[in-house]
Amino acid sequence: MSRIDLLGSPSLPNIPWQDKPKDHKGAPVWRYTENPVIGRNPAPGVARIFNSAALPYKDGFIAVLRGEQTNGIPYIYMGHSKDGIHWDIEPEKIQFKDENGEPFMPHYAYDPRLVKIDSTYYMMWCGDFYGAAIHLAKTEDFKTFTRLENPFIPFNRNAVLFPRKVNGNYLMLSRPSDSGHTPFGDIFVSESPDLCYWGKHRHVMARSNEWWESVKIGGGAAPIETNEGWLMFYHGVSSTCNGFVYSFGGAILDIDNPSKVLYRCETFLLTPEEWYEERGFVPNVVFPCATLQDRDTGRIAIYYGAADTYVGLCFTQADEVVDYIKAHSVTRDDDKEIGRR
Ligand code: BMA
After folding, report:
1. For FRET with 202, which of 43, 46, 111, 159 sits at 20 to 30 Å CA-CA?
2. d(CA 324, CA 142)
3. Does the beta carbon of 185 sit less than 6 angstroms from any atom of ligand 1?
């Protein structure tokens, strides 16, 4: 039993897991020793899968996967797994319908997130809406996917819903951006009563003075509800003479007012170190998109994209990671405020 209660999370005795190596140093996040869990050319016509999200489903796991097709255009594929590690990938891209039942195919789709609210699964991704923007769809059965309204106008990326309503409304994190490889970006949260109309936009966190996240930050996995607040894993970007480096960090948001940051770890939790993170289509990227967690043990498994080429898996434990974030927390005035000006 962990001290930190993962309030909204299920018992997940089959969570993929390895214990922390005895000689592990630094932040309490450790990689799966057999990474990457999805390698190159994973399906017909798909060169790489990365930045992907998974959830428990039936007696195993289900994933929405960013598949970079051999024509270079990203799209979303589904994966099925018994153990959360070995994945069967469906050869056909996900086909969407609109709310009238008419087929809808995005021009491109990348960086999907997957969030279950009550009995419905929601997918968010970045796609074309006269510019890069957030797309949203829902499914009950992973057979029919209904595309919903675009929550926000362009340009915006890195959307992820909270796994339950807060104060009666759905909440979504997002990161307003530009049309290119955005050289700025903070995390915002927006509310909706119905997943159609969005408002009450609030600023959550800015890029910080710490160099690992000084260019831009963006939401990663869906926030995890705990008795200390919402545990959020997000990516932070640094600029070098060889381009951007993507690491990931952790913060804890107020449970009723998630635009208030209670704790924010000043150091990264994971940064590119392994060959599959340092070498690939885009070197030096770790990009978290989803977590699995087991309420009974506090075990957390984090799926992350590596070097825009592979899917990696790493682990942490609720008590350890929350203690670490709190012990290394630095918050600024604009983190702590409600985020409205
Ligand atoms: C971001 C997104 C991610 C990608 C990252 C690193 O802007 O496009 O999909 O992983 O860049 O290339």
Report:
1. 111
2. 37
3. no
pTM over 0.85: yes
pLDDT digits (tens, 9 = 90+) for 150-168: 999 999 999 999 999 999 9
| pLDDT for the residue 2 | 84
Q: Is the CB of 132 under 6 A from ligand 1?
A: no
Could you please report the per-residue DSSP string of 263-332?
EEBSS-SB-S-SHHHHSSSSSSBEEEEEEEEETTTTEEEEEEEETTTEEEEEEEEHHHHHHHHHHTB---
CA–CA dist 200, 261 (Å, integer): 17
Ligand 1 contacts CB of residue 68 (under 6 A): no
| CB distance 282 to ligand 1 below 6 Å | yes
Q: What was the pLDDT predicted at 282? A: 98
Q: Is the CB–ligand 1 distance for residue 305 below 6 Å?
A: yes
Closest to 95 measured CA to CA, from 132, 147, 160: 147
Distance spanning both ends of the chain, measured CA to CA: 42
Q: What are phi and psi of 211, to 5 degrees?
A: -65, -25
Q: Which residues pair with 104 in a beta bridge?
A: 96
Residues, the chain: 341
Q: What is the mean pLDDT of residues 281-292?
A: 98
Ligand 1 pocket test target in 304, 308, 309, 310 with most atoms within 8 Å of CB: 308
pLDDT digits (tens, 9 = 90+) for 45-86: 999 999 999 999 999 999 999 999 999 999 999 999 999 999
> Is 125 touching ligand 1 by the criterion CB < 6 Å?
no
